[in-house]
Structure formats: structure tokens, C-alpha cells
Amino acid sequence: MGDRKQDRDTEFQAFVVGRWPRLMRTAFLLTGEQHAAEDLVQSTLEQVYVAWRRVGAADEPEAYVRRVMINAHARKYRRKLREFLAPRGDDSGLAHEVADTGDVIARADDRHTLLKALAELPPRQREAVVLRYWEDLTETQTAAAMGCSVGAVKSNAAKGIAKLRAIPELADTATHGGRK
User: Fold this and answer.
1) In b/e form, how buried is each residue of 11-22, taking b as 16+ CB within 10 angstroms?
2) Is 89 exposed, middle or buried (0-12, 13-18, 19+ CB in 10 A)?
3) Smallest Cα–Cα separation from 22: which of 117, 137, 100?
4) Distance between CA 166 and CA 180 in Å, rounded?
5) What is the pLDDT of residues 28-81, one digit of tens each?
6) Which of 38, 36, 33 is nearest to 119 (CA)?
7) With a cut of 50, which residues of the chain have pLDDT below it?
């Protein structure tokens, strides 16, 4: 029995080490703060560890973990509706996102402007934009992760992208490829 637990612990540890940067990036984009992202990932992994036997045997354990993280994030939003994603006077947390080395967005000159604008989107629009365009999930996968219909994903993503495009600094970036 001890060997099975040790094997499960080793498997869980390998999963966490391999997925940590991506989980942190997703959590950061959802929360807009480094510390909140770390808390979200850690609490998610605590929940997942308890059920790792079932999660590890799933076809897509990462999708399961992402869904747990989104649900935890949504619960926090419902509890703190007024405080959630309010623009911060101190943007220092935005500079500490864990960048994915293969992430083209990580190399953008106007990353700070984009992250700040993303933080100002309503929660469901932000989730849809993050999952569709940063995590590169399909509409179906995004709907499953958010617990909503594909139509809701399309609507929220379209509205979120429209709001981002309406920001002059981002429109200029998109037009000139990040160079002024």
C-alpha cells in the first residue's frame, strides 16, 4: 500500500513540475496578480491532490485541473464581486507573470498595456479570452472548462476581444505590430 501511495505522489509531483508554468500563466491571466495566481494554483493543486487517483487516470488530467482552477476562481469572484478585477492603483503585480518561453505574447513590447486591459475585462469575458487565445483551447474545450455553452464562449470571447480592440494603445499595437 505504501508503494502505491509513493507512486501516486511521484506521478502527481511530475504532473505539477511539468504543468506549473502553464498553470501559473493561466491563473495569472485570470486573477491579474502574481500572489493571487500563486494562491489559486496552490489551492487548486491541494484539491486535485486529494483526488489524484481519479484525476491521474483521466484522459486529460490537465483539463480536469484547469476546470477545478476556473471553478475556484469563479467561487472567489462570487464572494468578492466588487473587489474582483478592480483596476489596481499599483500595477507592480503585472510585471511578474511567469512567461512561457514559447509564448509569442510574452515577447510583445506592449505586454503591460495588454495585461492591464485584460484585467479590466468582466470575469467571464476574461476567462473566455484567456482560455481561447492564450491557452489555445477550442470553443468546446473552453465551454467545458467554463461550465457553459459554446454559444456563451463565442459571445464572451467576441465581446472581450471587441473591448480590447477598442483600447487605443492596443489598437495601435495591433496596427503597427507593437512598434511605434
Assistant:
1) ebeebeeebeeb
2) exposed
3) 100
4) 18
5) 988 888 999 999 999 999 999 999 988 888 888 998 999 999 888 877 765 554
6) 33
7) 81-87, 90-96, 106-107, 177-180
Q: pTM for this one?
A: 0.62
Q: What 3-state DSSP class applies to 55?
A: helix
Q: Provide the phi-psi class of 167: left if phi over 0, else alpha when psi is between -120 and 50, else beta.
A: beta
R_g of the chain, CA atoms, integer Å: 17
Cα separation, 118 vs 134, in Å, equals 12
Region of residue 82 (phi > 0: left; psi between -120 and 50: alpha; otherwise: beta): alpha
Q: What is the pLDDT of residue 1?
A: 54
The H or E element that residue 117 is part of is: helix 111-119
CB-count burial class (<10 Å; 0-12, 13-18, 19+) for 3: exposed
Task: List the one residue out of 74, 10, 7 whose CA is nearest residue 40.
Answer: 74
Number of residues written out for the chain: 180
Of 19, 31, 29, 25, residue with least CA distance to 60: 19
Task: Give the number of C-alpha atoms closer than 13 A to the C-alpha of residue 29, restricted to the C-beta side.
Answer: 26
Cα–Cα separations (whole angstroms), residue 13 to 18, 94, 175 = 8, 28, 43
